[in-house]
Amino acid sequence: ILFQELSELMGLQKLKARCEDPLYVDAFKNLFPTDNPKNTRFAINFFTSIGLGGLTDGLRQHLKTLPKRIMLQQQEIESDASDSDSSDSDSDSSDSDSEGSSDSDSSDSDSSSSD
Questions:
Q1: Measured between alpha carbons, how far is 97 from 30 in angstroms, rounded to an integer?
Q2: pLDDT at residue number 88
């Protein structure tokens, strides 16, 4: 009801500008959530149902670009994982070499103690 009254008094464009103002973004971040697509859709549906869908243009744009950002993040994660896998395989081979030499050393000490 508050936003509807503000819209009547200020006009939708002024209200939208005020909601997007950097000074007030923190105050409105929970009303216009971008943390979870489910919350974002809920806010879009809510404001649209009370006749203030114009306030949700930023949220709609966020939802449109979200799949692209998710794909980019997954590609970055996969490339990081493949980079670390190749470095891990290098260290694994050196680890197995050192383990083999320590095993032969212990068997040498066993045979020398039985003499």
A1: 56
A2: 53
